[in-house]
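Researcher: Structure for this, please.
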Amino acid sequence: MSNEIERVSGADLEAELTSQPDVWERATSLVAERGLLPADGQRIAVVGCGTSWFMAQSYANLRERGGHGETDAFAASEAFVDRGYDAIVAITRSGTTTEVLELVDAVRGRVRTIGLVGDPNTPLIDLVDDVIALPFADEKSVVQTRFATSALALLRASIGEELSGVIAQAREVLAAPLDDGLIDADQYTFLGSGFSVGIAHEAALKMRESSQSWTESYPAKEYRHGPIAIAAPGRVTWSFGEPPAGIAADTEATGARFEYAPIDPMADLVRLHRVALERARRNGLDPDRPRNLTRSVILDQP
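Model: Predicted structure, token format:
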């Protein structure tokens, strides 16, 4: 019997997503590395692609709302970085993503850049001024889980957030039974507010990547401005963080399920990771090798 046949579908993803609480603890303990991030009061941009872009959105929201300085988040391919920023933080698991490399190379010598990476042996380290490496959070699976959330854990700790409670919630999520009603839904819409908007976008991406499911994501108060039209029996609207008043009732009136757990959105994302993995397996898919995707996007150069 071949190794491919013997292999359990999503084995890498399962190992990586279940390791998240332990890896978050390690990431938040990196005091010296946190000191490389921009100081309070500096005006910064945070860039990334895909999952890393969504983590950039969450960090930008927390940093600015917390009074630590103006913070913008951009997809690396669409970033406006010639705005007098004091520093740019580039998040990339592989350190090989074309758009990120092009951006930091273009501003080299003009703007301080900090690379937040999973693999420190990458081209990025020669292009940025400082590197924060999380090799213990790097992953084999194409579908990201622990690098992204560990990067966000470190970034949250860097602005003074205490995450022991969040880590405890993630451990409880991993020990809890899964709900078949969430796994077998026909469609998913994910909502967030504040820093959890980025987490909602990431949840939608994880479910699409892992299980080829129909997913959408929005800022929570945008949901009633059109997206609620797709709510129906057999579909799920999942709120990361406390939803605005009335949205749960409006969703349930359509026959759709409204899902909300009163825990930190980052811990609730771990629950989504588990649901996505199980949904993929039930559909006969291997989320470690999702359709049409590679671990890093390296574009052909003109």
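Researcher: Any notable elements?
Model: Residues 1-6, 294-299 have pLDDT under 50 and may be disordered. The longest helix spans residues 265-282.
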